[in-house]
């Protein structure tokens, strides 16, 4: 019968799909257990970070960087301004005509 071949092909495809879905289900189960384990590790890490923050005596805020940046800019500007003033002084020195 011509329809029997098509039913056989459909049955084989359905069996292959069932096997694929079984593998996907197994992978999802493994992923769920991995995510649970990672969640537990993240909770532990969060607790350890809270203990470190409390032991440090700060509220977890970053140290102020503005004074450091201002000192760095001043340190970089002093030689630049000195070089500029020195160059202008050299330009003002009269040259001997030959």
Structure, described:
The chain is an all-alpha fold and 98 residues long. The protein has one domain (2-92). The chain is built from two helices and no strands. The longest helix has 55 residues, at 2-56. The termini are far apart. The model has no long low-confidence stretch (mean pLDDT 88).
Determine the mean pLDDT: 88
Whole-Å distance between the termini? 117 Å
Portion in helices: over 70%
What count of structural domains?
1
Could you list the spans in which at least 5 consecutive residues all have pLDDT below 50? none
Order of helices and strands: HH
What is the strand content? under 5%
Question: Main beta sheet: strand number and arrangement?
Answer: none
Q: How many strands in all?
A: 0
Main features:
mainly alpha; 0% strand; 84% helix
Give me a quick take on this structure.
The protein is an all-alpha fold. About 85% of the residues lie in helices and about 0% in strands.
